[in-house]
Design a protein that fits this description.
The complex is a heterotrimer. Chain A is of the alpha/beta class. Among the domains of chain A are: 158 residues, Rossmann fold; 68 residues, no CATH class. Chain A contains 14 helices and 17 strands. In chain A, helix 1 packs across helix 4 and helix 4 packs across helix 7. The longest helix of chain A has 17 residues. The N and C termini of chain A lie far apart (46 Å). In chain A, 58% of the residues are buried. Chain B is mainly α. Chain B contains 15 helices and 1 strand. Chain C is of the alpha+beta class. Chain C folds into 2 domains: 56 residues, 3-methyladenine DNA Glycosylase II, Chain A, domain 3; 169 residues, 2-Layer Sandwich (Alpha-Beta Plaits), CATH 3.30.70.20. In chain C, 33% of the residues lie in helices and 13% in strands. Chain C has a two-stranded antiparallel sheet. The longest helix of chain C is centred in the N-terminal third of the chain and has 28 residues. The N and C termini of chain C lie far apart (117 Å). The chains are: A alpha/beta, B mainly alpha, C alpha+beta. Chains in contact: A-B, A-C, B-C. At the A-B interface, strand 15, strand 16, helix 9, helix 10 and helix 13 of A face strand 1 and helix 1 of B. Strand 1 of chain B pairs parallel with strand 2 of chain C.
Chain lengths: 445, 329, 286
Amino acid sequence: MKKTFRIGGVHPDDSKISAQCAIEVFPAVETAYVSMAQHLGAPATPIVAVGDKVKVGQVIAEPSGFISGFVHSPVSGTVKSVGPRADIAGNMVPHVEITVEGDEWMEGIDTSDTLVKDIPYTPEEIIEKVKKAGVVGLGGASFPTHVKLAPPKDKTAECLILNGTECEPFLTSDDRIMRERPQEILIGGAIMMKALGVTRGYVGIEENKPEAIASMTEAAKAFPQIEVVVLKKRYPQGGEKQLIDAVIRRQVPSGALPIDTGAVVQNVGTSLAVYEAVQKNKPLIDNVITVTGRCLPTQHNYKVRIGTPMSKILEVAGGVPEKAGKIISGGPMMGRAIANLDAATVKANGAILVLTPEETRRRPESACIRCGKCASACPMGLEPWLLNKLSRAGGLQDELEKERVYDCIECGCCSFTCPAGIPLLDMIRSSKAEVMKIMRSRPKK
Amino acid sequence: MDKLIVSPSPHTHGRESTQSIMRDVLIALAPAMLVSVLASGWSALILLVVGVAACVLTEFLIEKYMLKRPVTICDLSAAVTGCLLALNLPPNAPWWLIVIGSVVAIGVAKMTFGGLGQNIFNPALVGRVFLLVSFPVLMTTWDDAGSMFGIVDAFSGATPLGAVKEGLANGLTLSEITADNLTTTQQFFFNVGGSAGELSAIALILGFIYLLCRRVIKATIPVTILCTVFVVSGIFWLANPERFTNPVFNVFTGGLLLGAIFMATDYVTSPMTTKGQIIFGIGIGLITVFVRYFGSYPEGVSFAILIMNCTVPLLNKYCKPKRFGEVRK
Amino acid sequence: MTGTILFTIATLVALGLLFAVVLYFVAQKFKVEEDPRIGTVESILPGANCGGCGQAGCHAFAEGVVKAPSMDGFFCPVGGNPVMTKIAEALGRAVEEKAPMVAVVRCNGTLASRPRTNEYDGYASCKVMASLYAGDTGCKFGCLGKGDCEAVCKFDAIHVDPERGIAVVDEDKCTACGACTKACPKGIIELRAKGFKNRRVCVLCVNKDKGAVTRKACSAGCIGCGKCSKTCPFGAITVENNVAYIDFSVCKLCRKCVEVCPTHAINEFNFPPKPKIEEKPNEENV
């Protein structure tokens, strides 16, 4: 009986049409536009100036707060400008623009493929190396990994769970790295376990990835402390809270953090980045991006350096087809629709998905038929129909707080399910932000 | 390429729509409609056609000319109401009876509350009860309308429940009443005088299985209702078998199956959480049994469902789903 | 039969009388003593309970103004000066007349002047759209046209014009309660003085981008050139963050700024049409 989370969930078509495409190294670009907002929290502060020469892996920005991170140059060349540039939503964010010259790497970075298994570092050294390498959560949230690996003194980590579920339809980058580089992922896992001081590790993989399961299970034979757990194919299996519920059967209490259950969850891509950071001294400067969509002539899994414009990626992949309607950064359930295709990739970008208008245009909204399917689908046990009604009424923030709108993980199961086509998540997300702002502004007791 | 489309997530949608769900309900009702037409002939077919037409037309006219808002007949909910209403009437009822019923069901019970999704009471049941109270004679006599193709012979006379109520009121015991009544098997398949939809339990159960497979309804409400009726009537029957009818009889007669599977599970008028649905089902079961045993009407399902419909907003308010994080281990 | 009817009627009448007496005494015993002037003031107020005065409804306003030592800080925008004068009379106090205000949508980026660069397919709410991205045009400051302002207006005074794609205020109905200014996620709507004979001049743009960027996104936007500021004889115009702003308390409605604005971002409202100057015929020797 395969494990899965206990409340809610939906079953979209998994559409893994790019699963058989091996990872290709994306060709070099002419200019890299490196965003300073590569992570959750405050954007990093640039430490280079126009005209500076930089090498691959050189620090070009420093953290500007506790929740912040280092940013390194993904290319070698000359800094052309430091200033605002539009991101995928059209908002201006500080960027460092570098004209590419050659591909010279910083000294000390091991660019070979040799597997390095020994971990001769102390937990503090590991965390420092991860921090200096600018590793962030590559599952999409971009939370600085070094902060997650050092939980507060009053919380104890009991186990590490590597998230290989990749529950979003169309995405296959995690699948490919699990097939192609399983040992590095597991060494990364072992490194993180050492940093956290835990002795149990799990890798959660959805059952629709049999090759990845086989590859990771084989590699895990050398790591008796890490167990591969096969999970049912169900969305959002990869949600942090849902994954913890499925693997160790503990549910994160409302309003609390995952560490309260003793589990620390990291994406398999992050684990790979940790391996490279600690064992190879390589900072996080690239990521595997799935370029996919049924209207694209070919599917790809590219290893792309950060700072590559998305329009360039699509151009190399064969161009944007005429019948494209919406281009999404991420998957169809939680990804962000791109308004500005010239925006450059950031560390946590994992996919570019092209959908036709027929595949994605919303159907007209009709009356709520009170079927309750949204409540059945909600993995957090909330009542989206009620949250939506309270949000649209306006001024009912206290009611919304009572109904735990702050527990919403914005997975999209409710809007996906609603037979009447009501855009439930649109308003719920908006009220969630309002209510959380009010909650944060309250004086702490 | 046209302009890029931008919207908040999610960017894809499941396959269900209001229309597809209503269509599934119509398909699930098809076996029952077929049996009713085969057993009762053209009159049943006319009732169905007139019922659906009257409901759809009422909704169309009210939305277009009175409320002046977009017409929603394409979502098929009015058609479903029409079918259910037709199946709830005696097969030989005059066509104008169902027209009145449709106007009340759609106009009063649905549109005055604001249309689909806003009504408190099940429209088909409101229509039926209105007709029952206004035209008691027409609504409670069944003539042998003649079967279709000689396949099925309908039973003429009062319904079994009606006969029981009358007999008990006249001081007869149950064994005396049932002497010339029918076996359970006959009730199960057909040959029970009853409204068009009661005629075949098996047809209704087929529809139930279809709805379950298509995930249109969960089994919670029907199963709860039937179990409650069975258990409660069983307790009374064990206490006094001459005064109280047996539980199997109770489950298969009086449109309980039709009500439990198709009327009580109507999304709009039933609770949205499992806990609420269980309470709803138990309530309906209890009221049905008490009306049948102690009330002045022989049949209680319609009233039971309408009474429990009133409690649904309260059940929705107090029966919340299990939140994530409430179970620690 | 008749006996039953008579008995029933008699019982019910008796019960009714009993309850009436009990309720009367309870109402008297538990009566809340309130200054009778509060009731008087409340009856003068329009009773819209819109919150435009900043109080929690008309009763709260009445309570507040009666208990306060003066009329300072209390103004009902819906009732305006006539209502405030009546209240002042009722309370035997003096009140200052306030200049009537009106809501102004400071954006003229219509569908024609501000081309759409993408298609928004989400829920029709400005709040949702603004939190999602920079908008469906090249100007991220402009009116989104989804009608959050229209939804909150209690006086039917602001509507999104479907042909122009921006919100438009009906100044006859607007009471300057301020609900739309709070609802607009872009902060485009401002309460400004209605002006002498309802005439006013306003910069219909809040775009803070540099002039070239603004111009590319919208042909009616303010490019921050500063011509208006230099031309204004009264110093009413300041240019900050690449956008001009007219201080309505200083503006004398001379309209010199309107003439010099190169993009026609500055607009005049309710002025009579200027007399046309005949063009001198060109003297050309053929």
